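re: ur question from earlier - yeah i can do the single chain one, its not a big deal. heres the input i used so u can compare w yours
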Amino acid sequence: MKRKTFVLLLAVVWASVTCSVKAQNLQVYYDTSRGCVTSTLEMFRPDAFGSTFYFVDMDYKSRAFGAYTEIARELCFWQDTDWSWLSIHLEFDGGLAGAYSFNNHWLGGLTYSGHSEDFSKTWSLSAMYNAIPGLRDITGKCRMHNFQLTGVWGLSLFEGWCSFSGFADFWSEGSTLVFLSEPQFWVNLNKIKGWGDIPLSVGGELELSNNFGGDRGFYARPALGAKWTF
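and the output i got, formated as tokens:
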């Protein structure tokens, strides 16, 4: 259920360009592997000191049965300098799935970000310390101290008709190494003549994971979706 899209990256990059940029979107997916519906609400807002990003995932069957959230803060007090590509990254992750609680993750590190001249291509790379206070091994020993690497990208294609975005996370949970990536592809229907005021996109994502969420081994899980940006 861990999910980021290009909004996180835009929060890093655009904060150094303007403080008037903001975005929020609601995504709804049908997971063809798990047979459930997931909704994702995302928001970012830049300000004079960096940017704030969060998302909330909800998984549904007959009723809501899972929730996951991330909130991240990028700090860049030097936006008007040659070091504007570098920011301090702070993040919290956590959630519930039925009666089961995910271990809370507290992260801190540095983010490198960049973009093409017209912002049609954006990217970032974060290196972070990942504290998981509730993590213990089979002997009961605390395994709080971990690491995480995160890459995020966004591409605007075919004069804005399509977008390709996503993230890739690689982190440790004690002695276990975990990989998760969720590339997304969207067709933006507001490019259709007469649909300029309808900010609807259709497409989906492919979850690629290894040792994630209690599963051992590699999995590829496609999901079909729609996104409304407001």
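Residues 6-229 form a domain with the Porin fold (CATH 2.40.160.40). not sure if urs matches, ping me
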